[in-house]
């Protein structure tokens, strides 16, 4: 207490000066830096308009972080601006407000991203690379060109496997036109476990796939023993 009183007597009720601090850039919930105005604008757009349990913002964050990891482990040089924009906009064409009948959501996203990105202040010269990545991100697309497209493709494919893949598919049950019940969801997950590892392009992704598949299969085996829907084939 005496020390506090002495400090107040010498300096008054408040310090005579405050050290200036540079504020840290904002981040996404997963800690991805929003260190440019256009990133803040793209994340704001995604956060407000692209919320979904299976292909929303949290999925975009996982794709970005895993794609960056795959690039590092594969020694691929990537443009993180391109990867960020593609990761947060790659599924825009799957949302009702932006979808177009008869057009795959990947192609629709490639149509939409130029206007979204240029309006946000994204470098126009990099837009074609973003279009390449969003157009080829799905597992059924095998023509990914640039390095950003390759690692986004593999990250997005891996996100259909393992515990997170199960959670995503189950979240669609009774909500999506093909996920009509738990049995359909189980068959979908089994199909992904069987087919998706062969779709991966990088060795880094191929090394991660077996553990995710094993994790998924162990869960499904337990589910079959507890539910009639789980035993459906």
Detailed description of the structure:
By secondary structure, this protein is mainly α. It folds into two domains: 34-145, Cyclin A, domain 1 (Orthogonal Bundle); 160-233, no CATH class. It has eleven helices and two strands. It has helices spanning 2-11, 37-49, 57-74, 80-89, 105-120, 127-135, 147-158, 162-171, 182-195, 203-224, 228-231; strands spanning 26-27, 33-34. It has a two-stranded antiparallel sheet. β1 (26-27) and β2 (33-34) form a beta hairpin. α3 crosses α7 and α8 crosses α10 (203-224). The longest helix has 22 residues, at 203-224. The radius of gyration is 23 Å and the shape is globular. Mean pLDDT is 87; it is low at 1-22.
Q: Which whole number gives the mean pLDDT?
A: 87
CATH C-level category of the largest domain: Mainly Alpha
Q: Provide a count of the helices.
A: 11
- How far is it from the N-terminal to the C-terminal residue, by CA? 74 Å
Strand tally: 2
CATH domain topology of the largest domain: Cyclin A, domain 1
> What gross morphology would you assign?
globular
* Largest sheet: spatial strand order: 1-2
Task: Classify the beta-strand content into a percent band.
Answer: under 5%
Profile the largest sheet.
Answer: 2 strands, antiparallel
Give the number of domains.
2
What low-confidence regions span 5 or more consecutive residues with pLDDT below 50?
1-22
Structural class: mainly alpha
- Annotated CATH architecture of the largest domain: Orthogonal Bundle
Rg result: 23 Å
Short précis:
The N and C termini lie far apart (74 Å).
């Amino acid at each position: 207490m005496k020390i506090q009183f002495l400090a107040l007597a010498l300096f008054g009720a408040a310090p005579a000066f405050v050290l200036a601090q540079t504020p840290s850039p904002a981040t996404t919930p997963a800690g991805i830096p929003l260190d440019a105005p256009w990133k803040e604008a793209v994340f704001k757009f995604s956060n407000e308009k692209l919320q979904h349990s299976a292909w929303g913002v949290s999925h975009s964050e996982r794709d970005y972080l895993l794609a960056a990891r795959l690039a590092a482990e594969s020694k691929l040089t990537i443009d993180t601006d391109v990867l960020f924009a593609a990761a947060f906009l790659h599924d825009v064409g799957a949302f009702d407000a932006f979808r177009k009948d008869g057009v795959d959501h990947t192609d629709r996203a490639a149509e939409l991203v130029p206007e979204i990105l240029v309006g946000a202040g994204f470098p126009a010269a990099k837009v074609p690379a973003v279009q390449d990545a969003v157009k080829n991100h799905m597992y059924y697309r095998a023509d990914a060109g640039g390095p950003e497209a390759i690692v986004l493709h593999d990250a997005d494919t891996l996100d259909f496997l393992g515990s997170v893949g199960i959670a995503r598919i189950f979240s669609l049950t009774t909500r999506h036109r093909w996920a009509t019940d738990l049995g359909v969801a189980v068959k979908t997950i089994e199909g992904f476990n069987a087919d998706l590892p062969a779709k991966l392009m990088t060795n880094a992704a191929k090394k991660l796939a077996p553990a995710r598949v094993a994790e998924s299969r162990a869960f499904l085996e337990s589910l079959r023993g507890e539910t009639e829907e789980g035993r459906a084939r």
